Amino acid sequence: MTKVTMTVNGKTVSAMTEGRTLLSSYLREGLGLTGTHIGCDTSQCGACTVHVDGVAVKSCSVFAQDVAGATVTTIEGMANADGSLSVIQQAFQDHHGLQCGYCTPGMVMASAALLASNPSPTEGEVRHYLEGNICRCTGYHNIVKAVLAASGQDVAAVAAE
């Protein structure tokens, strides 16, 4: 067992872990941050997406020890300082960009990474960027609308699939 320390959601945290412990397990089991969902364990679904030093990564494909010392943001760290929903989270709620909610944390985290690198994406760019995140409920249409709304764009023109 090794003590792994990193900054998660603005706080320095440590937990004992084995070398083979995935970041997703470290967050959920070691730190009790269960908002990061584990869907497929093969980095195919994106439900476990978090940010490591500002980059969206699928936490089921990264060892916790490999991000020791890094800054990690999970869905729990996305809310505003006063506890209210972030612009992206609010847009997902306002535009019904969720249904069962299982993929939602990963979708929000991936969307935040997209908007950080491209503040005004086209509908096609949103759809392309989110290809690595699977939703089995919504059909993506409202998720795309939510991302475009979070970017400040008019979603009325978004074409239905």
TrEMBL record:
MF terms in GO: 2 iron, 2 sulfur cluster binding; metal ion binding; oxidoreductase activity
Keywords tagged on the record: 2Fe-2S, Iron, Iron-sulfur, Metal-binding, Oxidoreductase
Entry-linked Gene3D superfamilies: 3.10.20.30, [2Fe-2S]-binding domain (1.10.150.120)
Pfam families reported for this sequence: Fer2, Fer2_2
Lineage: superkingdom: Bacteria
InterPro entries on file: 2Fe-2S-bd (IPR002888), 2Fe-2S-bd_dom_sf (IPR036884), 2Fe-2S_ferredoxin-like_sf (IPR036010), 2Fe-2S_ferredoxin-type (IPR001041), Beta-grasp_dom_sf (IPR012675), Diverse_Oxidoreductases (IPR051452)
Stretches assigned to the 2Fe-2S ferredoxin-type domain: 2-78
The protein's name in its UniProt record: (2Fe-2S)-binding protein
Gene source species: Fertoeibacter niger
